[in-house]
Write a structure and sequence with these properties.
single chain; alpha+beta; ten-stranded antiparallel beta sheet; about 40% strand; elongated
């Protein structure tokens, strides 16, 4: 499945809408495979999208990528990328980092940039790691602050309710005596 995320990044069209998948049977010119149709690209997964070993991406602009998995779980890819608006034509390796949403793109052992996949939103390519990491975490600070405010409010309500309940319980089981003095006379009443 990592290959699917990486192929979407290379096709640069995941943000627009979810892909439409289909299975294509073997023909005289092509083995059986799954196909994903994206708004601006088509991705063929061989033998299927669940366990891909090879992916071929065709973009509407005429670009293509022919990528093969470098490992058993298809976390790392190698292959030809042609006609990309982001990378010059050539052979590349897309290597997944220890951060599941971040991969670096290399050519002949030289890092050219970083691909970021934000689950449920989009994917993009950046020349520097700090840019890629900033993009990866874009909007997370606001979400975190919102969660902290919500938790603080909930805790405040719970503490207030507990204090009010304790005060009410204390008032119902105690006797309050009030005394008033007028001149030399003191009057006390208990409730």
């Amino acid at each position: 499945m990592a290959g699917c995320v990486l192929s979407c990044t290379l096709a640069m069209s995941c943000a627009a809408q979810r892909p439409q998948f289909a299975h294509l049977d073997e023909t005289p010119t092509s083995p059986a495979h799954d196909e994903a149709v994206l708004p601006h690209a088509k991705v063929d997964f061989y033998p299927n999208r669940t366990n891909p070993r090879r992916m071929i991406i065709y973009t509407d602009s005429g670009g293509s990528s022919d990528l093969t998995c470098m490992d058993s779980d298809c976390q790392n890819l190698t292959g030809q990328i042609l006609g990309s608006t982001v990378l010059p034509d050539g052979t590349y390796q897309v290597i997944r980092t220890d951060d599941a949403r971040l991969a670096w793109v290399q050519q002949e052992g030289i890092t050219l940039g970083y691909m970021v996949s934000r689950t449920g939103t989009d994917s993009a390519f950046f020349k520097t790691l700090p840019e890629a990491q900033d993009y990866e975490h874009k909007g997370e600070t606001i979400k975190l602050v919102g969660k902290i405010v919500l938790i603080t409010l909930v805790v405040g309500i719970i503490v207030f309710a507990a204090a009010a309940g304790a005060a009410s319980a204390a008032n119902s089981s105690s006797i309050v005596t009030r005394c008033t003095t007028f001149g030399v006379t003191t009057t006390c009443t208990s409730r």
